Amino acid sequence: MSVAASSRFKTLLPGAFLVLVFFGAALISFFYTPFDVETLNIKNRMLTPNAVNWLGTDHFGRDILSMLMVGARTSIAVAFIAVGIGVLFGVPLGLLAASYRGRWADEFIMRGNDLVFAFPALLIAIMITAVFGPGAVNAIIAIGIFNVPVFARLTRGASLSLWNREFIMAARVAGKGSARISFEHILPNILNLLIVQSTIQFSLGILAEAGLSYVGLGAQPPTPSWGRMLADSQTLTTVAPHLALFPGMVIVLTVLGLNLLGDGLRDWLDPRLRRER
Known about the structure:
Elements: H1 3-29, H2 64-99, H3 104-117, H4 121-132, H5 136-160, H6 166-173, H7 178-214, H8 226-233, H9 242-269, H10 271-274
Helix pairs in contact: 1-2, 1-9, 2-3, 2-5, 2-7, 3-5, 4-5, 5-7, 6-7, 7-8, 7-9, 8-9
């Protein structure tokens, strides 16, 4: 293995390890947690890390490790579905805009993307919750809507560089239409970019879910959420700093792992670098 190839594992493997720990904790929580996250134990409130409660307890006496494990499920579900919404709607829109480049359909789609970009996910969530109320479903919708123009822009930009290539011209000569060319020839050639962008948007989805839960617009009690754990601990940092320390560390390490994984996948899937392996 070349030096260049081995250097790519410096980000890919640590990122994959952190992501596997994150997903593994969420998966295990479906079958086992050290304590029930919905059981209050006031007499054991705000315990520091010990042999029984490895990460301590919160202001209601709930085990922090158990809450972090269950909270991982919430973060995964929100971020995964939100990214799925972005891919499901954004990729076809980007392919359509590229196939009608310079025409009214292209302009209509891209100006619509600009309009959505003008409203951050938090502002979209506020508007949605003002109508339908706070909750994880509304957080998913808000983050998903924000992801659509991200994937649409990426897909359009990557597709435009391929439409004048020889193999596309050959497909046109063979009688294939724009839609068929987009899905049979364009999409497979930009799939690596979409995979990398999905990991990046997944990490942003984790942050967005934590931010929405922090301000009370995400998952609602009794469902554990990393963001709400931070919000609950903000007035107790001088008394029990571990209440904010552990949720904050989990968010940082999870986002770091996803970004490292995304960087490693980008280098690994880049066709210009494959010759070096």
